[in-house]
Amino acid sequence: DAGVTQSPTHLIKTRGQQVTLRCSPKSGHDTVSWYQQALGQGPQFIFQYYEEEERQRGNFPDRFSGHQFPNYSSELNVNALLLGDSALYLCASSALPQGDNEQFFGPGTRLTVL
Amino acid sequence: RKEVEQDPGPFNVPEGATVAFNCTYSNSASQSFFWYRQDCRKEPKLLMSVYSSGNEDGRFTAQLNRASQYISLLIRDSKLSDSATYLCVVKGGDYGGSQGNLIFGKGTKLSVKP
């Protein structure tokens, strides 16, 4: 049973560029949440997708957008990259958007913006 | 005030030591509480949930005090393999639109030395 997978594992971009990160949830999960983890910080919630819609959003600008596909996989898009967007981007999946069910994290995509 | 605050660390302890992590959270409406473990350059993984009655899993004991909005994690007889960053995590309440999602503390790094 594959866990949460993310691609790519590493990415280097320059300021102003756009990036797309991908996530496949754990088998049986239908909810995907995205987090940003800057160096030395805890992960910060970006947004959550369920039934192909953004259900909740954290305190991130509109440059951060996403999508969920019918097979529950998800993409995170960041436009007009800033140096401060350099971070580990984590995807987490769960069986329901609410409730006390565990969120399982993928290995993350490490984004470096130069 | 930050939503979830942890001891700044790092903690450097010898093998066999007992170490305690403390955490406070700001939103009294928070519903669920967890400790996650994150190894260097890896994703966070659930260590244990935290309940008001307290719970124990082998060498690990977690406590929750809702009145004080305080969470703790105790590790007894620490092992070299316990070296990691420990993240205090709160779920639920209304964190500016992030209701039901995970709010992480900054994490406390633990190094267990021989």
Walk me through the structure.
The complex is a heterodimer of chains A (114) and B (114). Chain A is mostly beta strands and 114 residues long. Chain A has strands at residues 5-7, 10-13, 19-24, 31-37, 44-50, 53-57, 64-68, 74-78, 87-94, 104-105, 109-113. In chain A, strands 2, 4, 5, 6, 9, 10 and 11 form a seven-stranded mixed beta sheet that branches. In chain A, a hairpin with a 2-residue loop joins strand 5 and strand 6. Chain A starts with a strand and ends with a strand. Chain B is mainly β. Chain B has no helices and eleven strands. Chain B has strands at 4-6, 11-14, 19-25, 32-38, 44-50, 55-57, 60-65, 70-75, 84-91, 102-104, 108-113. The A-B interface holds A 33, 35, 40-45, 48, 56-59, 90, 92, 97-98, 100, 102-103, 105-108 and B 4, 31-32, 42-46, 49, 87, 91, 96-107.
Topology, pairings included?
The complex is a heterodimer of chains A (114) and B (114).
Chain A: E1 5-7, E2 10-13, E3 19-24, E4 31-37, E5 44-50, E6 53-57, E7 64-68, E8 74-78, E9 87-94, E10 104-105, E11 109-113
Parallel strand pairs in A: 2-11
Antiparallel strand pairs in A: 1-3, 3-8, 4-5, 4-9, 5-6, 7-8, 9-10, 9-11
Chain B: E1 4-6, E2 11-14, E3 19-25, E4 32-38, E5 44-50, E6 55-57, E7 60-65, E8 70-75, E9 84-91, E10 102-104, E11 108-113
Parallel strand pairs in B: 2-11
Antiparallel strand pairs in B: 1-3, 3-8, 4-5, 4-9, 6-7, 7-8, 9-10, 9-11
